[in-house]
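Fold this sequence, please.
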Amino acid sequence: MRNLFTGKIAIILVAALILAIVLSIFGGISNRNPLDLAVQGVLAPFRAAATALTTTAEKYYGYMFRYEALAAENEVLKKQIAEMEDTARQAESVTRENQRLRKGMELLETHEDYKLVDAYIIGWNSSDWENTLTINRGTNSGIQRNMCAVTENGEVVGLVTDVGINYAEVTTILDSTLEISGTIASSGYNGMVRGGYIDGHQTLLQMNYLPSAAIIRNKEQVVTSGSTVYPRGLIMGNVVDAGFEETGIAKYALLDPAAEISSLEQIFIITEYTTESTATATATTATEATEATEPAAEETTEPVGGFG
């Protein structure tokens, strides 16, 4: 038994001696403490994991920082785009205004007797029977009731029916209370033009009391006949259909208004113009003659037939 333990001890001592020699040789070669190498070997997996976690954290932090920077940059770009879009809208608005004013100047050159006041539309009121708009000019700009409103192209918009110091209300050509003497330019046929009451055709005008023998063609232009309220030759619309009134003794024509009332931004009020000759004035209808002293909403109009 003693010999067994003595043999085991000898083996252990020899193994320890060999291990010490190997470690000594390895330490001499690597110049590092063998114990340190053993510890580092044990800690290596943990260091790798820590390094991976640190790298991930750094990437996440970098991503968050970059995200915040991109978000801030995005907000700046959005603001710049909004400012650029606003500038572009203003430029477009100014361009449209300049074009309208140039057209207005051309209208003045064509009609040297006209005096115009430009105005912007600031309000609308539209229903099946009523169509009015409010402009930002009034008596302080020389505007009075019963002055004619037109576009820059000389298209009839309507009639001033109410006015304040810095605003005015215009009853448009689409309103059922407004009736204007018109002429088919190509043929000279005369009739009364009125809007807003044609069932199913509220955006059209109707020209009544045309001669039963009148030959009416599509796309013929209808202009104002001229009166103390409406200068002669203003464009009202173009013929799109025609037929006989219910009485059968007169014809009517449906007109597409020349002025696109719903899309107007700016209009012109004719504050002054030279009236027609005495002969022409005598031919003016009684309805138009009263328009100079009475608001359009109080005018008396004839019943309409021929479109049921």
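The chain has a mean pLDDT of 76. The helical segments are 2-30, 34-110, 278-282, 286-291.
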